[in-house]
Design goal:
The complex is a heterodimer of chains A (662) and B (479). Chain A is mainly α and 662 residues long. In chain A, 72% of the residues lie in helices and 4% in strands. In chain A, the strands form 2 sheets. Chain A has a two-stranded antiparallel ribbon. A two-stranded antiparallel sheet of chain A has the order 3-4. Chain A starts with a helix and ends with a helix. With 479 residues, chain B is an all-alpha fold. Chain B has one domain. In chain B, helix 16 runs antiparallel to helix 17. The longest helix of chain B has 32 residues. Classes of the chains: A mainly alpha (662), B mainly alpha (479).
């Protein structure tokens, strides 16, 4: 098992290193072969591990493979914890990554067109891209397979780094550079909380090992600390909330969500892999992994629930007013991440993680389908210039339809099972804020259906609004693009039914996830079977909400295409529309207050603190001093032998003076 | 008069090296330019053979022989094996360098092997006589090697300086030995330590002798203020010889310090502790600060070596087995890094071009990204940046110093290593951020490319897995 887990992690890393360091030598074919094979190995072995752990019921594996250093009894090490939760994540990550690798061969085939003439950064950009996505796979695997906080943090930062590199992949575009900087800075805020959370764990448990921490939480659950004088905080609440701040950054929860829509500046394959299917779900995974801590703090759960509900509902609204095909999918991702977070807050971790899995498949599918459309449209992304693509691109059309149906939770599709489980779980939850959360996730169903099918109708049906030149070149994309779409469409339909019984309502995750009996909402849902759930699904509110969402979309964007503009022109709606177009003002506020404020603060500190004090006095002052001393001392090395001999005698005499006579 | 047959077995490696070197000396007479490679191969075979012998003799116990003037203990075993491995690497590095400069002659290998023999005797010495014998055998070989390039003025000048200053240091060492002999009446180290313990009352004469002894040791290690020869000799000698002088003799110097202070004069520990503190602080300070002003990379590495010698002293002065182990670890690690540093200078140079100036490293990344990366490993390691092995070496000696309650000394050492980081990082800055002055990638021979890559990657790998080497050092010191 140890060998297998090591191989799973190292195969993508090796691929990334070869493609990255020797990309110029091995060429495009070599680079995509070596990385794809590396990830394929990881996928096959992950599937094997999943079979052993989840199906054959093998013991979960928890072993350290390499101890880097031991300091005061705290071990800094690399270790793997492979249980049901990890095994599932490994399969999802490596499968989606493999699909994206294959897809990228087609998507980036003409990457040289994306760089200006003679740009140095455009050299071997194809190979570099493959190196990055393989490196991402390695980092993500390190994150999900960690058995200690140190390695979790390593993976956490490593995926952040690769995400930064890939958002700004086209580094000659100003918007891309802006977006990757924004992603990096916003994630810094989250990571600050995350790091404090890990520090709090270290301070109170004196270990970074998951198992030791989880074994000790029961004993420590009533410990309080005072953060500032006169306030007592339960230590579990503090740790849980600090860790969740990290999750808010990585999983783009309000108000740290602002980087995700902008991350769409990156090439579409990484939007699918990193900013939809895997990296952004790291926060969800982390909270599920830390369930023993969260279960001890109702305050933290309420915070998680509320933040998730706000994200689920309000980010959905923004999807309604976007014209860029990728941004619609991006806001939909935000909203779905909100659903997962709501599930975590309601203690329905299994449902949240299950939604994470189904979402990974159908959202990757939607992104890759959007990418396929973008390829066909010659890198135009505005939906107002599309329409009627169905007859030109049948495979993309069909797979998009499947993805959209899964997303809105049409009964029978994978998204249906996960989303309905979450809604039902929240319905039974008694955590403070669950009433609002229930309303938010229900209303979110209607919104989801509306924006999904708005996009679907605008792109694939209706009038062909593109210019003549683009239309004449429209055709289905090559097989390297369509095959991943088909392979992702299959689990988007079928992965839900067979697993919902065991994963969500069964004891599949019982070892990996802890749920306090008082919070166990999933057992109250009254699940019978997957078929029963489908049958029941047609009678519930979510189904009718989704159906009406689809109908409204059809009515507005197929039947009465003049209506949307008229509605927007109505007095109250106009203002709401203005708020939505400005994304509730988060971006402007951040740029004015945080961006501008910290720039001003920085300028002030720079002028006074840096230039005058630190640079002037300390750094340059001491550097000048050192430089002067060394320039003088250098002349002692005169090159004359008698000087040297004299120096030796002086040294001898000095030693005498100090130690014999003195 | 009565002769006991001494036990020859512990000295098998020494006898083997002596025999083989004499053999090479004779065989070389019959070789011409084309067949000279035989000497080279035989020299390498000698080192491999000696390694195998020392390995098979390695055990956890100390064994005395030749009327207690010779000792084979775990420390001697490990250090000797480190010396063989180092010199093996030196020969690999120098092979093509010597050839291109018409220095590929039998003398180089014969002298180097005699130097190795001197180091071995020094490492295993257990009496003032054998210490002096080993030291002189080693030093004379080194003087001659520096002077090998007879038509080079700088080399001749360096050799002259080295020889005269070395003779002075030897004289002081001898004077100190005679002083201690006069007080205690013995040359053998165990008896010496017993006699020193029993000396009552005034220890003035003992300390008098100790100071002279330490001057001799400090000269060999290149500790300030007895370091003046280091930059000039490292700079003036052909780089292949610099590579040799700057690495293996440090291991022998460390052994000499251990034999004299820890084996011979534990009774004077308070006194030598204070002297070593002074030497260490001066070395770390002067080495790191003056290195900044250098424009020649060989001189820069020379000052870097001076500061490393100071760090090595930090381990020894703590006076605990853990500290000695840390010092030994530092000596071995420094040797590995020094090999890489000067090896890189050899790799960069070619016939008629020595690549000695820092400016020659500008833009190396554009020309040969792989070798720039290797040099980056070496420089980071020397600066003590984790995860490279240099970090662990510094950490180990600093831990030893802290556990000896010398917090201020640790702080001083850290501050000066931060200052020192500047000149290591400057090399990296030149390689990665400056424009290359000449174009075209480096085209080193395959052997050179492989050995440098192995060296640099070894620095990284040892940094990832420092446990085994550290355990070996601890075992050798009986900690």
């Amino acid at each position: 098992m140890q060998t297998i887990t090591l191989l799973i992690v190292l195969a993508p890393l090796l691929g990334a290193l070869i493609a990255g360091l020797f990309g110029g030598t091995i060429g495009r074919g070599g680079a995509h072969t070596v990385t794809t094979v590396g990830v394929a190995i990881a996928f096959v072995l992950s599937a094997l591990v999943f079979k052993q752990i989840a199906i054959d019921g093998a013991e979960s594996f928890n072993h350290s493979v390499y101890i880097w250093l031991v300091s005061e009894g705290i071990r800094f090490e690399v270790g793997f914890l492979v249980d049901e939760l990890t095994a599932m994540m490994m399969v999802v990550v490596t499968f989606v990554s493999l699909m994206v690798h294959i897809y990228t061969i087609g998507y980036m085939a003409h990457d040289e067109e994306n760089w200006p003439e003679g740009s140095g950064a455009g050299i071997n950009s194809y190979q570099r891209f493959f190196s990055y996505i393989s490196l991402f796979t390695f980092s993500m695997l390190m994150l999900v397979m960690a058995n200690n906080f140190m390695q979790l943090f390593f993976g956490w930062e490593a995926v952040g780094l690769v995400s930064y590199l890939l958002i700004g992949f086209w580094s000659v575009r100003e918007t891309a550079v802006f977006a990757n900087l924004k992603a990096f800075l916003v994630n810094r805020v989250g990571d600050f909380g995350f790091l404090l959370g890990i520090a709090a764990v270290l301070m109170h448990f004196n270990t970074l090992d998951y198992a030791s921490v989880f074994n000790a939480v029961e004993l420590q659950k009533d410990v309080t600390i005072s953060i500032w004088p006169g306030s007592e905080w339960n230590i579990m609440t503090v740790i849980a909330i600090l860790l969740f701040i990290g999750a808010m950054g990585k999983s783009a929860q309000v108000p740290l969500h602002v980087w995700l829509p902008d991350s769409m500046e990156g090439p579409t394959p990484i939007s699918a892999l990193i900013h939809a299917a895997t990296m952004v779900t790291a926060g969800i995974f982390m909270v599920a992994r830390m369930s023993p801590i969260y279960e001890l703090s109702e305050v933290a759960l309420a915070v998680v629930l509320t933040i998730g509900a706000i994200t689920a509902l309000f980010m959905g609204f923004l999807g309604l007013v976007q014209h860029d095909i990728k941004r619609v999918v991006a806001y939909s991702t935000l909203s779905q991440l909100g659903y997962m977070t709501v599930a975590l807050g309601a203690s329905a971790y299994a449902a949240g993680v299950f939604h994470l899995m189904t979402h990974a498949f159908f959202k990757a599918l939607l992104f890759l389908a959007a990418g396929s459309v973008i390829i066909a449209m010659h890198h135009k992304q505005d939906m107002r210039e599309m329409g009627g693509l169905r007859k030109y691109m049948p495979i993309t059309w069909l797979t998009s339809l499947i993805g959209s149906l899964a997303l809105i939770g049409a009964p029978g599709f994978s998204g249906f099972f996960s989303k309905d489980s979450i809604i039902e779980a929240v319905h039974h939850s008694t955590i403070p804020g669950s009433g609002f959360a229930y309303f938010a996730v229900l209303a979110g169903v209607f919104i989801t259906a509306l924006y999904s099918f708005r996009m679907y109708f605008l792109v694939f049906h209706g009038k062909e609004r593109m210019d003549e030149h683009t239309r004449s070149h429209l055709h289905e994309t090559p097989w390297v693009v369509t095959v991943p779409l088909i392979l992702l469409a299959i689990p988007s339909i079928f992965i839900g039914g067979p697993y919902v019984g065991s994963m969500v309502f069964g004891d599949f995750f019982s070892e990996a996830i802890t749920v306090a009996p008082a919070h166990d909402v999933l057992s109250q849902v009254g699940f019978t079977s997957a078929m029963g759930m489908i049958g029941h699904g047609f009678l519930t509110a979510p189904f009718w909400l989704a159906a009406s969402g689809v109908f409204v979309a059809w009515f507005l964007y197929m039947r009465r295409t003049d209506l949307p503009a008229k509605i927007v022109a109505l007095p109250v709606v106009k203002q709401i529309h203005w708020v939505l177009v400005n994304k509730y003002g988060f971006d402007d506020f951040n740029q004015a207050v945080f961006g501008g404020g910290s720039r001003n603060l920085g300028t002030g500190l720079w002028k006074v603190g840096d230039v005058a004090l630190i640079d002037g006095l300390l750094v340059n002052g001491s550097a000048r001093l050192v430089g002067m001393v060394s320039a003088v001392a250098r002349h002692l090395q005169s090159g004359y032998l008698y000087h040297y001999a004299f120096a030796m005698i002086l040294g001898l005499l000095a030693l005498f003076g100090l130690f014999v006579v003195g | 008069m009565n002769f006991d047959m001494p036990n020859f077995l512990p000295a098998m490696p020494e006898m083997f090296v002596l025999g083989m070197t004499s053999l090479i000396l004779i065989i070389d007479l019959f070789l011409n330019e084309r067949t000279r490679v035989v000497s080279y191969l035989l020299a390498q075979a000698t080192l491999v053979g000696a390694f195998i012998l020392s390995l098979s003799l390695y055990s956890g116990n100390a064994e005395l022989s030749f009327s207690d003037t010779f000792v084979l203990d775990p420390m001697a075993g490990v250090l000797k094996m480190a010396v063989y491995a180092t010199v093996f690497m030196v020969f690999l590095y120098s092979h093509s360098y010597l050839r291109e400069r018409g220095l590929f002659r039998g003398e180089f290998f014969v002298l180097a092997l005699f130097g190795v023999l001197g180091m071995m005797v020094l490492i295993s010495a257990h009496s003032f006589l054998t210490i002096y014998l080993g030291l002189e055998l080693m030093s004379l070989a080194l003087y001659a090697m520096v002077a090998m390039q007879r038509d080079s003025r700088t080399a001749s000048e360096a050799a002259m300086k080295y020889f005269i200053l070395g003779a002075m240091a030897s004289a002081m060492l001898l004077y100190g030995m005679s002083m201690l002999y006069g007080v205690t009446g013995t040359l053998e180290l165990t008896e010496l330590s017993r006699a020193v313990q029993q000396t009552q009352g005034d220890r003035l004469l003992l300390v008098f002798g100790l100071v002279f002894l330490l001057v001799g040791v400090a000269f060999k290690l290149g500790a300030v203020p007895f370091h003046m020869w280091v930059p000039d000799v490292y700079h003036g000698a052909p780089t292949a010889v610099t590579l040799f002088i700057s690495t293996a003799p440090k291991l022998a110097g460390f052994a000499m310090l251990m034999r004299l202070m820890v084996d011979g004069l534990p009774g004077l520990q308070p006194q030598w502790h204070d002297i070593l503190v002074l030497l260490a602080v001066l070395s770390i300070g002067v080495g790191n600060v003056v290195a900044i002003a250098q424009t020649n990379i060989k001189r820069m590495l020379a000052y870097s070596g001076i500061s490393h010698a100071g760090f090595l002293l930090l381990g020894v002065l703590s006076g605990t087995p853990e500290g000695y182990a840390a010092g030994m670890f530092y000596a071995i690690v420094y040797t590995i890094m020094g090999l890489g540093g000067f090896g890189m200078v050899i790799l960069m140079s070619r016939a008629g071009f020595e690549a000695e100036q820092l400016e020659d490293y500008k833009g190396l990344n554009q020309r040969s990204p792989w070798f720039a990366l290797m040099m980056l490993f070496i420089m980071f390691s020397m600066a003590g940046v984790p995860p490279f092995i240099g970090f662990w070496a510094k950490l180990a000696v600093l831990q030893a110093v802290v556990s000896a309650n010398l917090m201020w000394l640790a702080a001083v050492a850290v501050i000066f290593s931060v200052i020192g980081a500047f000149f290591y990082l400057r090399v990296i800055k030149l390689m990665y951020f400056d424009q290359a002055r000449e174009q075209g990638s480096l085209k080193p021979g395959a052997d050179l490319a492989v050995v440098l890559s192995a060296n640099a990657i070894g620095i990284l790998a040892l940094g990832a897995f420092p446990g085994a080497l550290m355990a070996l050092c601890l075992q050798a010191m009986g900690a």
